[in-house]
Structure formats: C-alpha cells, structure tokens
From TrEMBL, chain B:
UniProt organism field: Cherax quadricarinatus (Australian red claw crayfish)
Compartment(s) where it occurs, according to its Swiss-Prot or TrEMBL record: Endoplasmic reticulum membrane
Family: Belongs to the EMC2 family.
Mapped TPR repeat ranges: 151-184
Highest taxon, organism lineage: Eukaryota
Protein name: ER membrane protein complex subunit 2
Domain EMC2 TPR-like: 87-195
Role noted for this protein: Part of the endoplasmic reticulum membrane protein complex (EMC) that enables the energy-independent insertion into endoplasmic reticulum membranes of newly synthesized membrane proteins.
InterPro entries in UniProt: EMC2-like, TPR-like_helical_dom_sf, TPR_EMC2, TPR_rpt
Cited PROSITE patterns: TPR
Membrane association type: Peripheral membrane protein
Amino acid sequence: MRQSCSLLCLNTTMAVVWARLAFLAGIISLFHAGYSAAQHRAYMRITEQEYTSLPTDIGVQGLMSLLLTMYGILHIAGDFKEIRANVQLQNKSWETVGNRPTFYTFAHRGRALSPNYIPPKSKSLLDNIENISS
Amino acid sequence: MASLDLDWEEVREQLRAWREDNTRHSEEVIDMWEYCLKHYKHKLGDERWMVEEQVVVAGLDSYRLDIAEHSLVALNEQFPGSLRVRKLKGMRLEALERFDEAMDVYDSIIRQDETNSTARKRKVAVLRGQGRIADAIKELTEYLKIFMSDGEAWQELCDLYLKEGDYSKAAFCMEELILTNPHNHLYYTRYAEIKYTQGGLDNMEIARSYFCQAAKLNPGNVRALYGLFLSCTQVSSSTKCSAQKKKETQQLATWALKEIADRYSKCRTNAMDGSKILETFGSLSITEKA
C-alpha cells in the first residue's frame, strides 16, 4: 500500500521520474504489441491465408517493450542486496548486532544524565555518628 | 520552544534507519524529536505512530519521562485497547521502578493473548531490572521452551549466564546462535572468547579454531586476530602440546601478529609508530595465576 502511494508521491528525483515513464511506456507498448498480434491473427483467418509466424515488426516491438519495462522496474525497485551473507556484517560491531531492543532495561546509570533526575537522598555523616554513639 | 534548522525529511530518514538497524541512540532520538520532528508530526503520515513508539522507548531509556508520557498519551488516543500500547505502559512502570505493577500489566497481556511473545520477554527484563538474575534465567528458559527460534532471547540468555559466571551454559547458548546464523563472524568471536575464558588446553584449542573462522569470515575483525594470537600463545606454551603442533601454532601466532600490525599501519597517525606495537606484543598475555 505504501509502495503504491510512494509511486504517486510528488517529491522525487528526475531519474526516478524517467524510470517510471519508461515503465509505463514499456507496459503500454507491450499491450499494444499483444493486441496487434491478436489482430494479425484475426486478419489472417478472415483473408484465409496460412498463419506461419508473427510479423517481425510486432515481434521486435514486443521484445523492445519488454526490455524497456525491465529497465524501468529495476530503477523503481531499488538496489540489489549483496548475495554473500557475511559481507553485510563486515562493518557491524557487537553494539548493533548484540542489541536486544525487546529486553531493554531502564535501571541503568544513564538516568543520571537526564535533566529530570533527582539523586536519592543520602544520609549525612552526622546521622551515622549519632547512631554509633547511642 | 527551540527549533533547530534541520531538514525534517532527513531527520525522518535517520530515525527510520535507526529503527531498521536496531541500534540504541536514545539521547539523539529525543533531541531530534524535541527540536525538529515534533513540529512536523502531522506531516509524517502513517509513519508517525512508529516514530512515537520509538520516542517513548528512547524517552524511558534516557529518563525524559515527560516526553515519553506525552507520546504515550497520543498513542493511547489513537489505538485504545491495543496490546502494544499496553506493553509500553508496562515499560513506563518499569522505568519508574514500580516493578510489581509492571508485572501485573504483562500478566494481563499474556492472559488476553497467549501467543504474545513480547510481554513474556518484558517479564524477563523486569526481573533483570530488579537484579534477580537467577529468576530471570528461569523465566527465560521457560520462554525458550515455547519459542525456540528466538535469536534475541538466546543472546539474552547467554548474557545472563555470563553475568552469573556460568560459562559452559553461556557457550551452549552461543552455539545455538551460531547454528541459526553460521555466517556471522561476531558470534564466532564471542563463542571463542567464552571458550578462552573457561581455560584449559581443550577449550583453548577450540577457541583458536573459532577465532580462525571469525578471521576468515571477516578479515577486518581485529578482535578475532588478537584472540587468535592470544589463544595460539596459550596453546603453544602449554606443557601437553606436542612439538609439531607447537611449531604450527607458533606460525599461526606470527601470522596473526603480522595481520594486526598491517591493519594498524593502514590507519596510522603521526603519533603512533607501527614498529613499537610488535615489541609490546611480547608482554601481551594472560597467565593462569596472577
């Protein structure tokens, strides 16, 4: 859903716009080639000629529109991911890989850096001395 | 209210990258939210709720409870009765150290939905936050009997066993993780470190071979190279080692040393001289009794 919305979204680069136009043109041309092939078949049947093979121009149009559509799709879909599994991990450290967000605990010393932190009241020395002497 | 002149779209991309990368940048998230993205929250669309959730967790982590509560109220209005929002309320109680109430909240979530794994994991986190490591281990092993393939839970169990000093069980947890991701050099490094810590010639040889594998998977893993050097010196200085094995191990140790020196010389500054490192390596070893 979000992908289709992003296709219609306005703030995109020129290269992506060209890729989308290429994709649309390729799809339309492909349909056109298919329709004209069907029309050719019907014409052959009406004029009672033998149907041997598709005329070359329709074949060429189909092939070129396929390549154009593929080019457009590749640019819309984004970069390929690296196929070797260990290359992605080369630059990662234990900090990111060993991070366990579902197990976060909040009772750590980082709390003291917050402006809202109130340090717990500690007993003063006088209290301790009074306890010992009594 | 102060507002930095940042491009809000870049900020949004950065937060999305952090969400997907699984990293912990709580203070930066809070700063970015407070000074930039908060004023554009209506432009975020569907992503707004994921960002709000991220802000709640970051706020609880850096003890900015006012910001966290603000976002939590917004989420509650949008998704009333949602279990995910209830879990966040439980996390807020944890941050306030009201652990019993947090436990009650998670129990109620589990009663309502038996298959909810995150509430069970939060219960373990509550026990860990209270410092009850043994109870946390018990709870986590119960969880793993049901949800056996949860990599994060195995990592957490390994960490809890390391806190207790139970190295053999921690090594078992790391073995499970290596089985799930056999191409991850960091798991091999950690496993080898646990084996090295356990000590003894067999464990040292296992550590040496796992450090080798980690260095093979990622030649940039300097920690594995250091570990390789240390475990090789330990094996070769052990009394039970045969002469031929000793020679091979020492060759491996010198190779590891050379690799480390290469790596340091590549990122050399004027202050650091690569040749001194080779001399100081001689003093780098951990002996059995201090």
